[in-house]
Structure formats: structure tokens, C-alpha cells
Amino acid sequence: MSSNSTALQEGPVADPLAFTATDVTTSRVVDFSGVDGYRTASELATSIAATLELPENTPYALRDNNRGRMLRDDVSVGSQLPAEGSELTLVPKSHLGQH
To answer: Would you state the pLDDT for residue 70?
Structure first.
């Protein structure tokens, strides 16, 4: 999993990354390794969704279960996560109601 885009960084970038990802139902769990830490969280979420065979027309976000926070979409994942041991949950973005 690699990308050519430029992502914002929150600090030093861990690269490559190894982590476990699951969908919100925990029925699909996949271990990843060798992941480009310079990818944005939104790019990584899209790739994980494809690997988990989830609908492609749904936007997703990533939750860092170890730290109990959502990853920032536009920031490199390697500056938001350690190099190894993270557990991520792929969360569909939903917007309820419009005003």
C-alpha cells in the first residue's frame, strides 16, 4: 500500500507501519504490514475498505482503538500512529439530517 500524495504531518512519521484493522462489527479482521506511513488516513481508510470488501461508495474514517480517538483524514497515518501494534476500526462516515 503506497501513495504519491502529500499529507500533513503531526510530527515524526513512522514508516512502514504494521497494524490490525477491523470493520465496526468486528466480523472482518485483517493484519497489515509494510504500509506507507506517509499516506493520509482517508487514503488508507479507502484501501482498508477495499481489502475488507466493504462498499466502495461509502466514505470511511479510521479510529485508533489504542488511544480512543479518530485519525485526522488529511494527516499522514505514520505521524498519528506508532510503527507497530495499532488496532484500527474502519468506521463509515454518516451525517444524520441536513439543515
So the answer is: 96
Q: How far apart are CA 86 and CA 99, in angstroms?
A: 37
Adjacent-strand bridge partners of 56 = none
Backbone angles phi, psi at 8, to 5 degrees: -65, 155
User: Grid cell 479482521 — which residue?
Assistant: 29
All structural domains of the chain with their residue ranges: 17-92
Provide the pLDDT for residue 22. 97
Average pLDDT along the chain = 90
pLDDT at 8: 74
Residue 40 gets which letter from DSSP? Answer: B
What is residue 99's predicted lDDT score, i.e. its pLDDT? 47
C-beta of residue 46 within 8 angstroms of C-beta of residue 77: no
Amino acid at 45: A
CATH 3.40.50.720 given to domain 17-92: no
Which of 44, 48, 50, 42 has the alpha carbon at shortest distance from 73? 42
Sign of CA dihedral 69, 49, 27, 86: negative
